[in-house]
Every structure is written in C-alpha cells, then in structure tokens.
Amino acid sequence: MSQNHQKVKSYKQPLSKSRREFLSITRSLGLAVLGGLTWSAYVDEAKANKLLLRPPAALKESDFLKTCIKCGLCVEACRNRDGNIIYNEKGKRIGTKDPTLRLAKPGDNKPLGTPFFIARKNPCFMCDDIPCVPACPSGALNITSVTNKKTNKLDINMAKMGLAVIQKESCIAYWGLQCDACYRACPLMGKALTIDMQMNKRTGKHAFLLPVVHSDFCTGCGLCEHACIVEKAAIFVLPREISMGKVGTHYVKGWSPKDQQRLKEAKPIHTIDKRSERKAIDKLNDLNLKGLLND
Hints:
This protein is an alpha+beta fold. It has helices at residues 2-11, 17-47, 61-67, 73-79, 181-185, 223-227, 240-243, 257-260, 274-277, 280-285; strands at 85-87, 93-96, 102-103, 115-116, 163-166, 193-200, 206-213, 235-238. Helix content is 28%, strand content 12%. The strands form 4 sheets. Strands 1-2 form a two-stranded antiparallel sheet. Strands 3-4 form a two-stranded antiparallel sheet. A two-stranded antiparallel ribbon has the order 5-8. A hairpin with a 5-residue loop joins β6 (193-200) and β7.
C-alpha cells in the first residue's frame, strides 16, 4: 500500500520548469502550424475557380470580391422568392425548395461566403422583381445595371450573369437528331436562342435544326443548360470574360453605328523602322526593275 501511495504521490509532483517550457513551445508550434494550414486553405479557397456564375447584376469579379460582405441576404431572398415556397393543401407554408443561389463554404473550392449558382443543378429562374438584387446592402449587386432607364423598373432581361456556349460535337441537334430542349427552355426564346435551319447533306432530305446563342440577349440564366437532355450538358454557361473574345479597336463593323462607337477608344499605332522608311515601290525598283515601276 505504501509503495502504491508513493507512486501516486510521484505522479502528482509538479512539472519541472524545463518540461513546462517544452510543452508550452510544442503547443505554440502546433497552433502555429494549424493556423498556417488553415490560412493557406483559406487563401486557396479565396483564389480558386474563375468559372463561377454570380447573381444577377454582380460587379466585375475583382470588384465583386472587394465589395461583397458575405452577408448571405441575396441567398435568403432567393430562397424565399414566391416561386420557391412550398405550401400544403391548406395553403400553409411548409418550407422552400433549394434556392438558385448558395454561399460558398469550406471545401467548395470557391471564395468563401460569396454567392454563386450552378446552372446545371439550379439555374436562375429570371424573377421579374429580382429579389436578390435589392437585398444586397453593399452594392456588390449593382441594381442600376438591371434598371430600365425609361421605366425606372427592374428588368431581369438586362442581366449579364454569363453567356451560353454550345459544344457542337456533343449536341445531338448538330448530329441531325431533332432536339430543341434548350431553345424551348430559354426565357428569351427567339432572341437569346434561335434555331438555324440547314440542309442535312448526309441524307439529302432532312434538315438540321441548330441552336444558336446571341450574346446581345443571353442573360446567362442557365435554363438552357439545365434543360439539356444529354448526360453532360452540350450547352453550358460561362462567365462572359471567359466565353467571349475581344476584337479590339483595330477592326470595326462599318455598317453598324453601334459598333463604331468602339472607335472612341482607338489609339493610333505608328510602326517605323529601317525597313519601313522607304516606299514599297522603291524596293521593287531595286530588283532590276528600275524605271519600270513608278508612283
């Protein structure tokens, strides 16, 4: 008994100063490493995925990330929109469907706490009152960009969430099979999406009914992608910065007054070197053709 008692007593003896310092350093080091890993993961999340689709009226991505306060009010407004509420037979609200918008959480590989949507799963349903936009308190969703200046009312058709792109090799309409699912799903049918009828040269007696996207009208809602009948959508929405090229100011549609407005940003370019100091006609005359070619 006395030996056991002695062992118990020895266990209760206070730690030596050096041991306490060692444990303290080890704990601090462990917390520092954990904090570093957490911060590293946060930075990776914050920078990842440039293919995100943002809510209607979102600012340019770099400005959006600076302005969004990650409050989630746009997501709540989307969740509680009229068409999303579930009622029972007595007309009592019993819940909501999954909203279009969601907040990025750890593991999503997207900037944490920011709103986005996945068109294939939950497209934007183009609400007339666009409830997510007025709910934004920071201006990350710019209400002016979706406000019709003539009527001073919100106009969802002015939204530019992205642009639909068609992968022709996977689109069965381009095979010659009749499919217009994306065309029928488009809320701006006949404007944002049209059908181009072309002759099927393979059969000689059938027509291709080909979907064509028009960037001037496409809002990027994703209803076409959601409706696509193939296993992996052959039409999908990408951010406009990714899906659209840029002509620049060196080329312009001479027949389009609107396109000529881009010339206001044009800057003259003068390239002069030793080769360009002489006229082309002089160079031709140097080739034993002197006197044969004149200005």
